[in-house]
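Sanity check. The docking grid for zinc ion depends on where the pocket ends up, so I'm generating a full predicted complex first rather than guessing from homology. Inputs follow.
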Amino acid sequence: MSDAPITPLLAIETSCDETSAAVIGDGGVVLSCVVRSQIEDHMEFGGVVPELASRRHIEWIDAVVAEALTQADVRLDDLKSVGVTRGPGLVGCLLVGLAWAQGLVVGRGIPLLGVNHLEGHLLASFVGQETPPFPFLALTVSGGHTSLVHCHGVGEYEVLGSTLDDAAGEAFDKSARLLGLPYPGGVHVDRLAQTGNPHAVALPRGMSKKPGYNFSFSGLKTAVWKHINEHGVPEGQALADFCASLQEAIVDALLLKTRKAARELGVTRVVATGGVAANSRLRSAIAEMADKEGWEVHRPEMRFCTDNAGMIGYAAWLRLARGERSDLNVDVAPGLALGVRA
Ligand code: KG4
Ligand code: ZN
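Predicted complex below; grid placement will be based on this.
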């Protein structure tokens, strides 16, 4: 363990379509977290265009870091360490953040820590706590990932299952697209579902009868496509009903496996994290399940649910505090798996 101070720590996240910087202070507290989303740039394409995304990161990163420093009232000279997302993510996007971080740490002679983006999501509920309350079961549901992970300690992550095809966020976004809703569609489905009947349309719960903890949403996507092909794009109340049914199918599939894992492992602390954890039905359904099962449920603050540098900085802070350091010439890892040393 090194006794040299590691805060203020600057964190950078550029793995996909959010350019984000955060400053972490003593105790892993987030002093500032600035997120600039590119959603509007990608909207007309119905999804993230990797080349465009990397260019935006290059254009925005200086200003986003400057804003994070200003909000935290910290100067570049004050920084004692840097944490940056190394993977998984889009290679061109990751390179922008990592190269920027490397320039800074080499120039200033301060330590660097490459962070696994998924570890950021796993720990995001506990930002600002000296130690996350291990062990816990984490359901990570985002636009790119869907997994159930048994978390035993910092860096000790047992992946129980993940999606075999689409991520839960993709299931929302791709179905929303078929319904003619804007990208990213998750939040629109959530909004329309508020006034819909979740039992109006029968949709499959992928993998629910299969052993293990994996997920699959491709069958659901096909069922949505077939329904629209046969009946046309629903409108008015029928659209609300369809959205509610779609949302219920996704949430059901997620929670069936979560409950199965919690029961089989005897875990009573459950975390729901990632962009889809912002979904209102997932939140209410998990609360209902928690009452029945006796779980203690944690969810990140809304601003730490979707991609942000705050959660990356917190993960970096936990590891730097344990004396971990990354090589200054560490490379990006677009396909980085959990449990692999970042
Ligand atoms: O974690 P995130 O910002 O990015 C990734 O790492 O992928 O998650 C974005 C995903 C998108 O698929 C978006 O549609 C979904 O989270 N999302 C929602 C809601 N808010 C965001 N899905 C359902 N309901 C919501 N309220
Ligand atoms: Zn993410």
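Relevant for the grid: Residues 117, 121, 142, 274, 307 surround zinc ion (ligand 2) (CB under 6 Å).
Also worth noting: The domain at 9-127+304-321 is CATH 3.30.420.40 (Nucleotidyltransferase; domain 5).
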